[in-house]
Amino acid sequence: MSGDSDCTRTSPSAGSPSDNEFLPDRPKYVCSLSPDLITKAREQLQEKPEWRLRDVQALRDMVCKDYPSLGTCLDDAFLLRFLRARKFDYDRALQLLVNYHTCRRSWPEVFNNLKPSAIKPVLESGFVTVLPRLDPEGRHVVCIRPDRWTPSNYPITENIRAIYLTLEKLIQSEETQVNGIVILADYKGVSLSKASHFGPFVAKKVIGVLQDGFPIRIKAVNVINEPRIFKGIFAIIKPFLKEKIANRFFLHGCDLNSLHQNIPPVTLPEEYGGTSGKLDISAWNELLLASEEDFLHDFSQLVLPCDSSPHDMLVLV
């Protein structure tokens, strides 16, 4: 199949050459990884620079052959996210890509009207942010603080939307695609009534997205200040976790020294015994809100054509 073909940009009713001749050329991929990260990607992700575009084309061909109605972006850079997330295993990368779209179809409360301006109240609350400093492995730290959420203000799905957009922004970076991310979840002050909003249905959906439906490598989940009820919360989550992911959960309680063994003080704000100043959410909020047009453009390419069939869907869990 020619690298210039684009089976997803043509509607089922528009098959004439004149309809296709106005399709824009896909952007040419230019690697932005440093030499060290190229080496890391080769060693950890089985990514060979000399075969990279061949691998992307192979995945593109599989999409067009097996899921011609998927409605996905087929740009090199976009498909690379899925190959890297599954260590260049074509079949697993394809399944991840299909799951990515299945998630977006199956949970409209989260994915409809998904743009930064729509979740501005969540960002302003400080429920989710990204720390300004990377950890020693070059990974961003996503900080989640459930105590910042007031359930009477908006439903829990708004928090999930904010987390999802945060991850979408982070995964645009090739460095993040290779290094992965770390999550810091601060459960200080989380009551039983608030925890009750995160029931099995929501838990299964969230885990389905993060574990099987999004091209990001979550390398560690550090939980701090968890109350006793967190054991109940984790009991809800754990059945849906793969063993590898479950083993990346670290429960630190109120022990900052334990936290610092995983995330050093130089990366953390003062609130967590760190040395990088007060926790400031404004920089990340401004960055994400300034990306509105990027999201509108990117997500406009992910609208499924009207003839989607059950063949195009995979069960997440």
From TrEMBL:
Residues 8-19 have a biased composition (Polar residues). It comes from the Eukaryota. GO terms for cellular component: membrane. SUPFAM superfamilies: CRAL/TRIO domain, CRAL/TRIO N-terminal domain. Residues 115-280 form the CRAL-TRIO domain. Pfam families: CRAL_TRIO, CRAL_TRIO_N. GO terms for molecular function: phosphatidylinositol bisphosphate binding. Residues 1-27 are annotated as: Disordered. PROSITE patterns: CRAL_TRIO. This is Alpha tocopherol transfer protein like. It comes from Apteryx owenii (Little spotted kiwi).
